[in-house]
Design goal:
54% strand, 35 strands, 5-stranded mixed beta sheet, mainly beta, Maltoporin, Chain A
Length: 694
């Protein structure tokens, strides 16, 4: 079949339906393309940034079950990813970004192939990506993402797709295990002349550890690139996703300890009102790269359509959203020397536009009742940046960047049903606006120094972040009128010496008008407010040690005993708040330790335990009166990973069958009493996978 014929068939089907932490897999370096950087190119690029960054080789998480955000970022320092109920939906936070959110991410720019997946208002869905379709994942923590147009506190995450060059041939992968879990993927990479094609088609389903937690998702990711000239290439990206997820809801701690598998069966709970989150997403994008000597121009464009059907509590109703988003961007890069020294200058401009028709219906035990209200929501963002990195000496470089953004958020209440009345509908609180037209403008500078000698780097930097509120923080009321800003300083080191690799960063952020999402304990409806002054500071530490003493430069080592760990410490506090004083901001545990101890040999075999440890409690309320308990999880995995032929794995999780809260909601004041805010983690489970690359 010709490449253009296969592209047509694939497209038609879709419309119808830190290097320091990576395992070493021996494989040939793929041919590079102008539009899609390789793993090694991105590793070198991110290593030049004077701050917390990481490039994840997909081979790292493909040694076990690769489904949730928690599994993808298991060994990523600074990235806190906590699954809600063994699903794609998760709480994800970097440096305390959106730390109260257990749904619909915020505070991080999520990208696919350098093009934003966030809707124009800043929110994103975890189900929009598939780790099985990625060649690698880039992470810029905090202000280190300014050159990607991200001015958020958390930074940016970019999933880079395979191409026909990086993944030639075909592969089939299947994962299966406890709770009727099944994940199957078929992928192929083809090259023909000056063009290449890659596609990944996957299906995921599971009944789930808990009742009313059934999930099903089908995803297609495809890209087609063509080299028009030696210096000009264009690549088209296609994404089509259909996902259905039952939501089991939150439990009280007592209910969780008595039976963590139950769903929320309370009178207004998830079971009775059939809580779900179902949506379809279609995305078409393009990246075109033109190179002229030391000058490179990248042009990007994307269109995203999303249809969300989301029955939740009777108080929040059935949310129906139709979204259309457009994104355009251009980046110019010049690598001419300056003053006889290596220099790189980049500048970029992007524009995003999004319109959402947000309809809310009464929830009649899971079915749509009368239309309660309808809003027309429009968000725009005009963003630009300039960045220059100059080598002052052979060992020392200085990076300066400046990003500027102008954003608008307009909500127009088109319809409000006067019949919809309490108890299942509460009018907006005083001060909330159901019709508003706000604009935000700010600049975000960044300065950094990087010293590198003998493979060891030391760096320090200062940056500013800026983030307007999103529409998803206005379920029943939007009283967060101000954008969140922060000033951050950071310092760290990364490198390798003999048998050790490491990546360590410390940071300190002074945050103004932090967007705090608080869940009402009775109705489970979320409201977002601006805090006054808050402080975030922490440690992001990743380490990889060969306990047999083999140097990482020793390619002849037959056996290794490798200890890998990611330790994330985050202290998030109010600063003299009139209500909360200097309390901890509820939402995340201060300490999170994850790791593995694997025997690995040169034939691709591996075996050993995995662990996750939260050694201290995590408050569920800003008054700090009630908390989730500490926990420790133990797992074990073994298998074989090869670049061609048959790879396989067996992985056991939570071997001690620990009952614990994987994450939890956030409320204002628990008054020291148990609350329905706990989301139990999965119990003891076993998974196995088989992958054939040919």
């Amino acid at each position: 079949m010709k490449i253009h014929q296969l592209l047509f068939v694939t497209t038609t089907a879709a419309i119808a339906a830190p290097e320091t932490l990576d395992r070493t897999i021996v494989k040939s370096e793929p041919e590079s393309t102008l539009t899609q950087p390789t793993l090694e190119q991105d590793r070198l690029e991110l290593a030049d940034i004077p701050g917390g960054t990481e490039t994840i080789d997909s081979e790292r998480y493909l040694t076990g079950r690769a489904s949730t955000f928690a599994e993808t970022f298991f060994l990523s320092p600074g990235v806190v990813a906590q699954p809600r109920f063994g699903s794609d939906e998760a709480r994800i936070s970097i440096r305390g970004s959106g730390l109260q959110r257990t749904f619909h991410g915020r505070g991080i720019r999520l990208m696919q192939d350098g093009i934003p997946l966030n809707l124009a208002d800043g929110g994103f869905d975890m189900q929009s990506v598939d780790p099985l379709a990625a060649s690698h994942i880039n992470i810029w923590r905090g202000g280190n993402a300014l050159s990607n147009g991200s001015t958020t506190l958390g930074g940016a995450i970019d999933y880079l797709s395979h191409t026909g060059h990086s993944a030639p041939g075909y592969s089939a992968r299947a994962e299966a295990g406890s709770y009727e879990y099944l994940r199957a993927r078929f992928a192929g990479g083809i090259t023909e002349g000056s063009s290449d094609l890659y596609f990944s088609l996957s299906h995921t389903s599971q009944n789930g550890f808990r009742d009313h937690a059934e999930q099903s998702a089908q995803r297609l990711f495809a890209n087609y690139g063509i080299r028009l000239r030696d210096d000009l290439e264009t690549r088209f990206f296609l994404t089509a996703i259909h996902t259905d997820s039952d939501l089991p809801g939150s439990l009280t701690k007592a209910e969780m300890e008595a039976n963590p598998r139950q769903a929320d069966g309370s009178i207004f709970g998830a079971l009775r009102f059939d809580n779900r989150r179902d949506y379809e997403l279609f995305r078409f994008a393009n990246k075109t790269t033109l190179r002229d000597g030391n000058n490179t121009w990248d042009f990007t464009a994307g269109y995203t359509y999303k249809d969300l059907d989301h029955p939740i509590t009777p108080f929040a109703g059935v949310i129906d959203q139709l979204s259309n988003d457009l994104a355009f961007g251009t980046v110019f890069t010049n690598t001419d020397e300056l003053g006889g020294r290596e220099n790189r200058f980049r500048s970029g401009l992007s524009f995003t536009y999004g319109n959402t028709t947000n309809s809310v219906f009464l929830n009649n035990l899971g079915t749509r009742g009368a239309l309660r209200n309808r809003d027309d929501q429009t968000a725009t963002n005009l963003e630009g940046f300039i960045e220059n990195r100059h080598h002052l000496t052979d060992e020392l470089s200085f990076t300066a960047a400046l990003a500027a953004a102008y954003s608008t958020r307009e909500n127009d209440r088109e319809f409000s049903n006067p019949v919809a009345a309490p108890p299942f509908y509460t009018p907006p609180v005083p001060g909330a606006l159901v019709t508003y037209d706000d604009s935000y403008a700010n600049i975000a500078p960044s300065l950094g120094l990087l010293h590198e000698k003998d493979g060891i780097q030391w760096f320090a930097g200062i940056s500013r972040s800026f983030e307007p509120p999103s529409f998803s923080e206005a379920v029943t009321s939007n009283i967060a009128r101000d954008a969140q800003t922060a000033n951050t300083i950071e310092a760290g080191t990364r490198g390798a010496r003999s048998f050790a690799k490491w990546d360590a960063t410390v940071y300190y952020s002074q945050v103004k008008d932090e967007l705090l999402t608080i869940t009402d304990p009775g109705t489970l409806v979320s409201t977002t407010k601006n805090a006054d002054d808050t402080i975030h500071y922490g440690i992001e530490l990743g380490a990889e040690l060969d306990l047999l003493g083999n140097a990482w430069t020793d390619q002849a080592a037959q056996d290794r005993l490798v200890f890998r760990t990611a330790y994330t410490y985050g202290s998030f506090e109010f600063d003299g708040d009139p209500t909360y004083g200097d309390n901890d901001i509820a939402g995340l545990p201060p300490h999170l330790v994850r790791g593995e101890l694997l025997w690995e040999n040169s034939e691709g075999y591996y075996a050993g335990p995995t662990f996750e440890w939260v050694p201290v409690k995590s408050f569920i309320d800003h008054r700090n009166t009630f908390a989730a308990d500490p926990y420790a999880l133990l797992g074990f995995k073994f298998g074989r990973r090869v670049s061609e032929g048959i790879s396989w794995f067996v992985e056991a999780k939570n071997l001690t069958d620990e009952i614990y809260a994987a994450t939890h909601g956030v409320i204002d004041n628990a008054a020291g009493t148990d609350q329905r805010q706990f989301l139990p983690g999965d119990g003891r489970s076993v998974f196995a996978g088989l992958e054939w690359t040919f």
